[in-house]
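queue> holo job accepted (tryptophan)
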Amino acid sequence: MRVLSGIQPSGKLHIGNFFGAMRQHLQLQAENEGFYFIADYHALTTNPDPKHFAERTFDVAKDYLALGLDPEKTVFWRQSDVPEVTELAWILSCVTPMGLLQRCTSFKDKVEQGLSPVHGLFAYPVLQAADILMFDSNVVPVGQDQKQHIEVTRDIANKFNNIYGETFVVPEEYILKSVAVVPGIDGRKMSKSYDNTIEIFEPENAVKKKVMRIVTDSTPVEDPKNPDTCNVFALLKLVADENELAEWDQKYGAGGTGYGTVKKRVVELLHEYFRPFRQKRAELDENTDYVEEVLCKGAQKARAVASGTMERVRNATGLGVVRNA
Ligand code: ADP
Ligand code: TRP
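queue> job finished
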């Protein structure tokens, strides 16, 4: 099966991104044909500072490779190295009903968060459809927040196929359900927009400081505590094994354990979990030529697929040269 997903380089990746999306992307590469890319055209909709934009994209590449993306198995590229997707996005936009995009909640949400209401932000789901349809993707693993965009993609594919004949594979969605929303240090959803993240690769002492600041309720040490509503326990669930988790669950119920004690254990476990990746990440920092080479080779492979799709699309739509019947 061909599995495709993209991640925007819109800030440093955090453990919510990892446990909520990236970990599953990496697991899926073992038994599928993985197509993963860094969605820098999409991130451009937020008008990022050009001085840091390229580097941020590159950082995401290093993060993914450090965390286990295998470029021998998985096609991995920077979206803007395959500019064919913008051509396809235009062609798809010519069959996309305005109403379909008007119903998308992400535009309104992002404008409410302060982003400028530019056309690219409105047309964002069409570019995403182009990403998915360009590569004949069967499955698109994304978080719940992206479900609507996959539905839009399916609608666009069906519409196009109806008008021009079978051209695109209609993808299945695949909503990643394995982890509940990872809370940030203030207890809201961990998100770079809330400035409450624990970054995957920030220095260990910074991780420690942040974990120690996680918001908890004011239950006294000696009293029983509720693991289900505790932000620290939510992180513990991500990194502790089953036996240890059961022990902590029991301690919460019994009372007598302070949140500070649990936080210290979460720090240790987070360090243990990410330490091997951290080392690989540091090596990649010293070996940027290798990272660039991976991205270039990935783009070459992606472009080979893209050119095949564009030929099909151009033929179907009647763009280009006159053909004999
Ligand atoms: P952010 O909210 O920091 O802007 P993105 O929207 O770029 O993060 O998220 C990229 C991917 O990571 C999405 O698939 C999303 O579902 C997942 N993700 C982000 N934050 C969390 C979280 N706190 N818990 C679980 N998954 C998350
Ligand atoms: N919109 C996705 C997000 O914000 C990123 C993305 C862009 C994507 N193109 C994609 C995800 C294609 C899956 C498939 O998380």
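queue> The chain is about 55% helix and 5% strand.
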